[in-house]
Design goal:
The longest helix is centred in the N-terminal third of the chain and has 19 residues, at 2-20. The chain is built from five helices and five strands; from the N terminus they run αβαβαββαβα. The protein is an alpha/beta fold and 130 residues long.
Length: 130
Amino acid sequence: MIRLRVPLLVGLSCMPLLAWAQDVSRDAMATRMAAHDAPVLLDVRTPAEYRDGHLAGALNVPVDEVRARSGAIGARRDQELVVYCKSGKRAARARDTLQSLGYTNVHLLEGSADAWRADGRPLVQERPNH
């Protein structure tokens, strides 16, 4: 009976590592952006949050609109997408939605926008025209 539990416990202990394995680190993203080799970046926050500061080149599709507007992303189903929001919860929902639509290479930005901002990394701010 112990033999059956050990593989199960070992397997379960690895699950958090597997879940995080798809996250793209902020350092890796910054390096890729600097080299002009960034994947498609998808910001799933509200338009107001996006205007307040987003990663350069990110496309804004609010999480509740991802299914309806997936064609506007302009990416092949196998193309790398990195999704982020404020803290990561909406990004995870968007990733699940995209995967259900057949996107096969969807990742989350580690720590999302809050961590990017806390690192002091640059954000683009949209200013309304007056």
